[in-house]
Amino acid sequence: MQISPASPESRLPGLTPASTTSRSSLLPQGSSIPFVLVVLLFFIWGMSNNLTDILVQQFRKGFNLSQLQAQMVQSAVFFGYFSMALPAALMMRRWGYKAGILLGLCTFGLGTLLFWPAAVIGQYGPFLLALYIVGCGSAMLETAANPLVAQMGVPDTSERRLNLAQAFNPPGTITGVLVGTYFIFSGVELAPGKVVQMKAAGTYAGYLHSEIMRVVPTYVGLGSGVLLLALVIGLIKFPSVAMGSSVPNGEGVGSFRELREYPHLWLAVAAQFFYVGAQVTTWSAFIPYMKQYTNVTEREAGWFLTGNLILLLIGRFASTWLMQWIRPVKMVAVYAIINSSLMTLALLHPGFVGAMAVMTSSFFMSIMFPTIFALGVKGLGRNTKLGSALIVMSVVGGAVLPPFLGAIARSSGSIALGYSVVVAAYLLVFAYSLLQRRDVSPQSVERAPEVF
Structure pTM? Predict the structure, then answer.
């Protein structure tokens, strides 16, 4: 018989939270408001990350970029993740998750506000710098928020809890694409003959600058909202797990040497690299894919991109519910095989059918990031912050893989062929799921003292 955390038996001496909490109890009492505030962070960086999918197309038009050059938008953001995740973890070892969240929000807000001067300057480089700073802020937020959610309750429900929190990421991504499609895309697509006329009249440069300036209101508004959220979080009391280490002489903060004892962590780092690379590559190339192989307009392709994100949202809620009966790592295996098949279909049959296959793959992306993350940090104990940082750093796959698609598309003239990168990435995620099931992580968990 399972004992409810609210029952008198659950307060008897000698009973641990893991042995007394129902599998359906995801949060301890008194942590609801901090949990909701942290969930808002998932919404925010989801919105930001998918606004960059809009920027790829907008900057390509406004700065006359190639596919490879336009994909540097994603590289700038995810190199920010790579370079800042570990410093953020080292800072949070001393000051705690809440301090990391506050610093991340301020850094994120600064990066978005820098879009204004970048647009006034009218050059691509300053935008990439601003996006890099946004990526640094996002890295701090993810390094703090993901393990904090995983530790806001008993270990047995960490995957479900993190998948629930990540379920509010897709509404952010949907909002980002809708806002970008409506407010950033002008809907003006000039025919080659019209471009020649405008160049002759000296009005083409002004048109391109006006296209670039369209990004400013969206990003300045986002930055202002983020800074306001930082103020609110600063005033709210968080659980003790979110604060700095109280163990003297740093005995409770873990070390890099101890991380060698957790093979399941390193498997998760590798898997996350390829999964995030696959996700970012899929979505950032989706609008160019539809533009090349279908007759849709720029804005219509943006609406179809929203369909990807709606399917991701549905998949996350449905899959989190199914995790009550199906092991998360098994779901990752099945979903990875399905997605490799769907992307192969998009590669071999470019057109509307291929675009629908790409869209459908978003449903099966749903659980991958939070499940790989939760499995990777499970049982790390005092090494959770450092382990989380390594997994967040691995999202640099989102910077590495899209340029490969861009290079293949430029050399072959086929964006569809570039999706072979995504097929390979999902096969490697499938290999991770097989290795994870054979991993000796239970012994590692026994050696690691929990921090909650």
Answer: 0.71
